[in-house]
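Researcher: We're teaching a course module on how sequence relates to structure. For the next exercise, students receive a sequence and then see the predicted structure as tokens, so they can try to spot secondary structure elements on their own. Here is the exercise chain.
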Amino acid sequence: MLVVGLTGSIGMGKSTAAARFRARGIGVFDADAEVHRLYEGPMAGEIEEAFPGSLTDGVVDRAKLSQHLIAEPRRFKELEDIVHPRVHEAERRFLQDEYANGATMAVLEVPLFFEGGHDERVDAIVVVTASREVQRQRVLARSGMTDVKFEAVIARQLPEAEKEARADFVVDTSGSVENCNSQIDVVIAKLLPLSATAYEEFWRD
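Model: And here is the predicted structure for the students to work with:
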């Protein structure tokens, strides 16, 4: 089974690309969705202990948590040390389920893909990108997003040029959804014949 990494900076179109993979019958693990799930209960206590005042009605309030992190950016590493091991185990379960179900390809959609060392555990990497203007417009249209938050997120991520240089495939999502879908279809066709070794080496046990 081929293990594919899908990544890109905030607002670059990961969700649109992931939707096309799913539409083509390929399973996609959404790391950000898993973090949301963990914040809704399984990890709330640990987050509150490390970042007091981060909960609302017993679940992690991302706006409150982000206030901690904007004030003390060095604490991002502390948060990652809490969250990443749990997400990694969820990724493993997902891939093992996909393998058991006979999948020939599975995708890990991870925002901080390179930053978290995921590039060492996949067979191929797809990076989605867009112009900085399009990215900013998309991100600032989100509820609760500000320029300060946007710049804080960007500061934690690798420069776009470096991500593209380390990718096997780059998909430009600046245009229409249909254009993005066409690019993903081409990528899938090129992925299918690739050698698959990552699952056996990193994820099976």
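Model: If you want an answer key for the exercise: The first strand starts at residue 2 and ends at 7. The mean pLDDT is 95.
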